[in-house]
Write a structure and sequence with these properties.
The complex is a heterodimer of chains A (about 200) and B (about 230). Chain A is an alpha+beta fold and about 200 residues long. Chain A folds into 2 domains: about 50 residues; about 150 residues, no CATH class. Helices cover about 35% and strands about 20% of the residues of chain A. In chain A, a hairpin with a 2-residue loop joins strand 2 and strand 3. The longest helix of chain A is centred in the first third of the chain and has 44 residues. Chain B is mainly α. Chain B has one domain. Chain B has a two-stranded antiparallel sheet with strand order 1-2. Chain B starts with 5 loop residues before the first helix and ends in a 13-residue tail after the last helix. Classes of the chains: A alpha+beta (about 200), B mainly alpha (about 230). The interface between A and B is medium-sized, with 27 and 28 residues. Chain A: The complex is composed of six subunits: RnfA, RnfB, RnfC, RnfD, RnfE and RnfG.
């Protein structure tokens, strides 16, 4: 058979591989163009729903996704801050912070009012031990609500720690590194907000 | 082309040549996701879909593909199908993607898919390959779900927790808390639990196979290797 002979030739083999790559790449490009707008929309909806989770209902009335600012930190990183306002008056800010936990980075989303008091915190991403460290998720336990209404003003810096280290936040049986890291991430976030409050609040 | 023996394909996929418990393939995703019955089921179903599609595609082009470059072509086709599934789920079934997203990326490294392409789809017709993919995938789903349920039961005292997130609210009846107020055996959720459960599953299957072989002894010589 002709094809059997052809298959033994190097140019045919190279050609087959190239054709295969071409077709699959084209398929990927095509489907990327087809799905990109829908994926973008879904990601925005996700972000919107996490933004509303860290601020009490009715606190802001604007579309926070459209009012984002990039703030440069001291070490050169850029943090996206979503600004919330009520009746045109700046009222709240939402931003991400992170710290290294027991198994890699823990990323949290923090919502604060204009004065820098925590309105809500949610863990966005973590890889902590299931059953021990994952109590930081709102779905598993209410622990993360312990940050609400705390600020750098009403809680001295040395009290921003787990109880074992002289702070006020509970640790979990068998897991101290995880809550320690979350407390640290929130504290870092508040420090960041305090340092850049004017930049974030200003017109 | 002979008509494929569909009964034998399903028998192989679900039991005789089960991906996990006989071929011992795909152990990476097996260990990683079987922390609960729901996770096992989700990974299994996603893999079944991908495996069926890749088997059909690769079987359709099997006469064109030269032996020397078949492995890269298989891999490219498999990776493309997985990416396409990932993108479409993310775009149009976003809630499902949030639950399954992690598993879909893991399917690329599932050697069972390449294994079926190499062992079956590259040598058999499209229809037979489609059924082979479906059967092997369902066998994989079965093993993963059983492993997930065992680890979940001992590890957290529940069965099919959060199944309604994966299958829709209609399936919330599957979610059972077997032992309320259970402290949990963390080790079963962590990787060692996966190895232990797999070990016990293998022993149980071999014992069962050996017993079956003894019962219809003369006909089933192929199971001789499994007698203890």
């Amino acid at each position: 058979m002709q094809l059997a002979l052809l298959r033994e030739r190097i140019p045919y083999q190279a050609g087959t591989l190239a054709a295969c790559l071409l077709i699959t790449s084209a398929a990927l490009v095509f489907s990327n163009q087809l799905t990109a707008p829908a994926i973008e929309r879904a990601a925005r909806a996700d972000l919107q729903s996490s933004l509303t989770q860290v601020l009490p209902e009715g606190m802001v009335d604007n579309d926070m996704l459209r009012d984002a600012r990039q703030i440069l930190t001291e070490n050169g990183a850029s943090v996206t801050v979503y600004r919330g306002s009520k009746a045109g008056q700046y009222a709240a800010a939402v931003f991400e912070s992170s710290a290294i936990g027991y198994a890699g980075e823990i990323r949290v989303l923090i919502g604060v009012d204009a004065g820098g008091t925590v309105m809500g915190v949610r863990v966005l991403k973590h890889a902590e031990t299931p059953g021990l460290g994952d109590k930081i998720e709102i779905a598993k336990a209410g622990w993360i609500r312990g940050f609400e209404h705390k600020s750098l003003q009403n809680l001295a810096p040395e009290r921003w720690a787990v109880k074992k280290d002289g702070g006020i936040f509970d640790q979990f049986a068998g897991a101290t590194i995880t809550p320690h890291a979350v407390v640290k991430a929130v504290k870092l976030g508040l420090d960041f907000y305090a340092a850049h409050a004017n930049e974030i609040a200003g017109e | 082309m002979n008509r494929p023996d569909i009964r034998k394909l399903f028998r192989d996929g679900l039991w005789d040549q089960n991906v996990v418990t006989t071929q011992l393939l795909a152990l990476c995703p097996t260990m990683a996701v079987t922390t609960s019955g729901t996770n096992g089921l989700g990974m299994g179903l996603a893999t079944t879909a991908v495996l069926t599609v890749t088997n059909i595609l690769l079987s359709a082009i099997r006469h064109l593909v030269p032996d020397q470059v078949r492995i890269p072509i298989f891999i490219v086709v498999i990776a493309t199908v997985v990416t396409l599934v990932d993108m479409s789920l993310n775009a149009w079934l976003h809630e499902l993607h949030k639950v399954l997203g992690l598993f879909i990326a893991l399917i690329v490294v599932n050697c069972a898919i390449l294994g079926r392409a190499e062992a079956f789809a590259s040598k058999n017709g499209v229809v037979a390959s489609a059924f082979d993919g479906l059967a092997m995938g369902l066998g994989f789903t079965l093993s993963l779900t059983v492993m997930g349920l065992m680890r979940e039961l001992i590890g957290s005292g529940t069965l099919f927790a959060q199944a309604s997130l994966l299958l829709g609210p209609a399936f919330s009846f599957l979610e059972i808390t077997v032992i309320p107020q259970y402290g949990g055996v963390l080790m079963m959720i962590l990787p060692p639990g996966g190895f232990l459960v797999l070990g016990f599953l293998l022993v149980a299957k071999r014992k069962l196979d050996a017993r079956l072989a003894r019962r219809n002894a003369p006909s089933q010589t192929e199971n001789a290797c499994c007698t203890v």
